[in-house]
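Practice problem: predict the structure.
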Amino acid sequence: MRTAGIFNMHTLVVMAALLVLSACSITPKTQTPQAILPDQAPDKNWQSRHAQLLKLDNWALTGKLGLRSPQKNGSARLNWQQQDQNYRLQFSDPLGRNALQLSGNSIRTTVLVPNQEPVTTTEPEKILFQQIGWEIPVNELPHWVLGSPAPNRPATYSLNSDGRLTTLKQAGWQLEYESYQPAGLLWLPRKLSMRRGDVHLKLVIHQWSIPANAPVRLPTIPAVIDNLMAYLQNL
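Answer:
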């Protein structure tokens, strides 16, 4: 009888694990991001998370960007589309009117301001400041908005217990990640602030769009079974 009881319990656990993984494959957009095991160190979680973020090169977001500085204050709606190394950032005023558009990559960017000729440049930050008086770290921002340092540049950072960035210092900017939100099977930033000197940028991301084939590590059947068995033994 004891052997049968163990067999039934193991069978139940295996069935539950298969149901969990089946739900992951059927409804990826609503699946809760993978749980962090208590015995995993934040650094180990970060290594896995960072590897996923480096591969995530196709996404979109909508949100609001605010600027506060001695020279200028303001805010704009933001619509961002990223595909591989190419991006398009569209800024609009509170009424939805197009105010500014950036399109390009890390090598060359075209800045389009209404009623002005397009400007193609290798220094988008300089052109932006000349045109509208905003300081925006264009080259680093595609990485920072994902919650990752820009590659190949020195950086210091701190992590929370889940292995997500809470602070980042890079390229003369200081970033604080105030909150995260689920985006498909990932957790991506919801609110972050960026400071350099007396310039303060605040980004609130309202919605992320992540492709269904995004490179996300799913839990394996043995890992799910082990977690469920440990949970049942502690009941």
